[in-house]
Write a structure and sequence with these properties.
By secondary structure, this protein is mainly β. It has 1 helix and 9 strands, in the order αβββββββββ. An 8-stranded antiparallel beta barrel has the order 2-3-4-5-6-7-8-9. Keywords: Secreted, Signal.
């Protein structure tokens, strides 16, 4: 089921506070700027590495948007919208993919046109998870949702993401992250936050 002409697509657009136009830091980064609201002194984490703040800008381009009519026929509480797409950097002369995003939204309040959404932005440095309520359907406005965690360099990150709808299938996102740490090989985890594989030992070895 495509995105065009879908009344319910606006729900997905409003609810995805967790994805969109990311600019990465490092080799795959494009537009990273220091947070203007960052305090003068950044607290040091308990592992001895330097915690820092980061702002990441990206655009999410939806490729999939499927509406699931659950329960009563027609739009009702419990209906879901499942989406996925690419994260793009628009810096420079040419756009380039820098990651992907996916998630789902569940309608919780028909009177307020509101629902709960959860999504994950997947970047070369790790994943960022987002969750929160979106309202104002079918005409979504700028919304801010919570960053609930992540993996890799974002494994202890917290903060928020601001989403602005450009078109029903294009979202502009600004991630404001705190307590972000660079990956350290000695912590036993890979860049995506998964444990580093360990060669099994045989009995008697």
């Amino acid at each position: 089921m495509g995105l065009a002409g879908r009344r319910f697509i606006f729900f997905a657009v409003a609810v995805l506070g967790c994805s969109a136009g990311l600019t990465l830091i490092g080799p795959a980064s494009a537009d990273v700027v220091p947070s203007e609201t960052a305090p003068a002194a950044t607290p040091r984490p308990d592992d001895g590495s330097s915690a820092k703040r980061r702002v990441i800008h990206v655009e999410a381009r939806l490729r999939v948007g499927e509406e699931l009519d659950l329960g009563a026929a027609g739009r009702s509480v419990g209906d879901q919208f499942v989406f996925s797409g690419n994260l793009m950097s628009t810096e420079g002369r040419e756009e380039r993919p820098v990651g992907r995003i996916g998630g789902f939204c569940v309608i919780t309040d028909l009177e307020r046109n509101a629902g709960q959404c959860a999504s994950t932005a997947v970047l070369p440095e790790g994943q960022i998870t987002v969750q929160g309520e979106q309202a104002g359907i079918p005409v979504p406005v700028t919304v801010v949702n919570a960053v609930t965690g992540g993996t890799g360099e974002f494994r202890r990150a917290h903060g928020q993401v601001m989403q602005r709808v450009l078109t029903p299938a294009t979202w502009q996102l600004t991630f404001e992250l705190s307590d972000v740490r660079p990956h350290r090989p000695e912590d036993g985890r890979g860049p995506n936050g998964t444990p580093t594989p360990v060669r099994p030992s045989l009995p008697g070895k």
